[in-house]
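Structural prep section.
Before we set up the soaks we want a predicted structure of the protein with adenosine-5'-diphosphate in place, mainly to decide which crystallisation condition to try first. Input record follows.
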Amino acid sequence: MSAPPKQPPSDADPEWVHQGLQATARKGPIATTLALLAWYWGDWPVFTVVVSVTGVLLLVNLWLIDLYAQRYGRGEAEWPRMLANAAGFCVLGHSTEWSPLVWTFLLYNMLWFYGLGPRSRPRLAVYLLIVLSFSLWDGASREGVLAFGLLGAFGYLITEKRASLMNQMVRQVVEQRGQLEKAHEQLQQAHQRAIAQEKLSSLGVMAAGVAHEINNPMSFVTSNIHSLYKELGRQPSLPEPLREYMEEVLPATLEGIKRVNAIVADLRRFARGDPEAYAEYDLNAEAQTALRLAQGELSHCQVEVELGNPGLQMGRPRQIVQVVVNLLANAGHATAAGGKVRLSTHREVDGARVEIRDTGTGMTPETLRNLFQPFFTTKPPGEGTGLGLAVAHGIISAHGGRIEVVSQPGQGACFTVYLPRVPPLPNYRRPKDESITEGSQPLA
Ligand code: ADP
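Run finished without errors. Recording the C-alpha cells verbatim:
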C-alpha cells in the first residue's frame, strides 16, 4: 500500500507561511556574518564586536525568545526580538562605521520580523524608526540610510503581499480538499446504498421465487381442505372423532391456511423484482401488511396498533411496506419479552405519518449518530446486516419524506416516518431528509 500523501497544515495558518520564509531568511544573516568576520579578520576590536553581537543575538533569537514565546505567546515574543536585533544592528553599525555589509542585516531583519498578524507592520515601523534615526544620529551617510531604509520598507511590503497571496492559495487548496473529501464521502455513501439496493433486490427476487413455490402447493392444500370441509358438512351424521375434526380442527386449519396465504400474497407483492410504479395506496392497509410480515419478529412483544385516518397517499406502496417492516423488526429485536411495540398512523396537514414506538433497549448517542449509515449494526455477526435503516432512509428520502428518531439508552425508541401526500418529481430533493433527537417518550 502506498503511503498517504503529505497533508498541508489543517488550516491555512499564516504562522506556517511565516516559518517557511524564516527558514530561508536565516541563511542570509549567517552568510553575511561570515563575510563580516572574514572582512574584519585582523582588525581585532571590530572582529570581537562582531563575534560578541552575533553570539548575543544567536542566544536571544534561538533560546531566550523561544522561552519568552512559550510563556507569553509567539506574537508577544516578536517585540523583544525586534528590540534585541535593533540594538545589535546599531552596535554593529557603529563599530564598523556603517559598512554596507552591516546594512544588509536591515533587509534580513525585515523578513525576520515578517508576519501577517495585525501588529507586524507597527513592529516593523518601530524597528525602522529606531535603526534609521540612530544611524543618522551616529553619522551614517544619509544616502545610505535612505537607500537601505527604502529597500527594507519596500522589500517588506513585497514579501508581505507575496505571503498573503500564498496564504490565500493555501486556504483555497485546503477548502478544495475539504470539498473533495465531502464529495468522496458522498460517493462512498451512494456506492454503499447501491450495494444495499442490489443486495435487497436479489433478496426480493429470491423471496418472490420462494413465495411462488409455496403458493402452488398451498392452492392444492386450500382447495382440498375446503372440499373436505364442505363434504363433511354435507354428511347427515358423523362419528364422534370426525365431528371433532369438522367443528374444531378443520376451521382452525382453514384459519391457518388463510394466514399463510395472506403472508405469501404480501411476500409476492412486496418482493416482485420489477420496478414499482407510483400508485395511490392506503397507508393503513400497507401498515397492516407490514405488521403481518413482521409478526415473526414481534411474537414475544405486546403489539398495539392504532390506525388513524391518514387518507390515501401517492408513492411506492411496496417500498413503504418494506420500511415499516424494517422498523417493526428492529423494534421487536430491541424489545425484551413482554415489552410493548406500538404501530400508529396519523394524518398530517400535507401528508401522513407512521410511528413505531417501543419500550426496548433504546440507543446511545453514538448509535443515533450512525443509525442510517449502511452496514452500521450493533447486532452480533450473522444477525444484523446494518442495511435496514439505510435502505429505509433512501426510500423515504425518495418519497420526499423524512425519518425522525427519538431515543435514549434504556428508554425505548420512537421512529416517526413523515410522508408527503404526493412525492416530489424524481429530480427534486428536499434539503432536510432526516433528523435525530435524543430523549425519548416511552410508551404510556
Ligand atoms: P440491522 O437491524 O441489520 O442492525 P438497521 O440498519 O436496521 O440494521 O439498524 C441499525 C442499528 O440501529 C441496529 O443494529 C440497532 O443498533 C439500531 N436500532 C435500530 N432500531 C432500533 C430500535 N428500535 N431500538 C434500538 N436500537 C435500534
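Observations: The mean pLDDT is 83.
Flagged for discussion at group meeting.
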